[in-house]
Write a structure and sequence with these properties.
This protein is α+β, with helices and mostly antiparallel strands. The chain is built from 19 helices and nine strands. The strands form three sheets. It has a five-stranded antiparallel sheet, with no helix packed on it. A two-stranded antiparallel sheet has the order 1-2. The chain is globular.
Length: 405
Amino acid sequence: MKPWRGLRWARSSPLLISTGHTSVLAGFFVGRYNTGMKWIALFLGLTLPLPASEPLPPEKVNTLIEALGRLDPALVNGNPALKQRLNQVLDTVRGEPRLVGLVKKFKVTGREADLLAVAARHPNDPAGVEALAMVLGGDGLKSVNALLTGNDAQQAAAVARALGNSNNQKVLPLLTPLVIHPNVHANVRKEALKGLANFETGARQILAWAKEGKLPQNAKFTAGLALSTVRWPDIKAEAAKVFPRPPGANAKPLPPVAELVKRKGNVANGAKVFLRETAACARCHKVGAIGQEVGPALTEIGDKLPKEELYEAIIDPSAGISFGYEAWLVTMKDGNAAFGIIQSETDSELEMKGPTGAVTRHAKAGIKSRQQQPLSLMPPGLHLTIKEEELVDLIEYLASLKKKP
């Protein structure tokens, strides 16, 4: 078989292919012959040996992906040199969305971990959703479950979000246990709840838990918020009864969050509310050089959270706690205790930051126990200290805090 059989002729374009000790310039060719020569050059670039230990530079990866995209899968899978080069490219783009198309086109097996990495890093991207669907369609259910119940809560939350976006009924038994398990991180539970609410069976299960009193306290606001926007009228109506809207400053229930996010607030007034002593926002959060850094900095929070999640963070802080800012109760052997965020840890010492921002150090030899707390350091009820329109202004201000171009 001639080495260029199976190539799909493409339009001419300038392209420099560098492999090992060879460089081939192919560009602005005229006619079928020269176009064919270009893709023979690409084929040679794919098949010439390249040490597996040698990292692929970005421009070479792009060239190889373009070349592989033009080749018939049967040709690649039937040629050891091409298959080796494909795997080398896949190793290089591990965790990137473009890995998904290559795995799908060439029907590559054994890449479940890589597909899950894409799903975890890009849960809202179509490639992340497709990657997860590919894993669920194969033998990757055990791998998904291992990530969801592992020690990396941030990765587990991202995978749970991708599961919820997948529109695949197979995710229900994976997400369901995460909602009521007592030791699940708040953010993992939050994503599992939102994901379950995308399915009628899952939405009805959330309602059943609430009525039976099985829904954890830090999940109730998220559950009510998720069910308030479902497409099933009877579930939405029942949820409104089971999850009453939180009260505002005048004891009158706040409008639904879905309505609040549509309002346009005053950014300048929102900045004043942020600095107000009664609101106490700047007592724990920094915006630029203003405020104290007890909780996460909010300088670019508008790039990270939509308005809906900003409302949720203020009305029910414990529904979602930023990773690295979980509250811990550390009990000492002498009977004393420390409460706050674990700021750093060595083999011999624990450094903690308390609710006031004060940092204390504790020898590990003197620690009796440590326990992560289900509630956020941020106290609930902030929205009760400000008027409804001031809450809208505050959210508008926070949403405006984005990275400067």
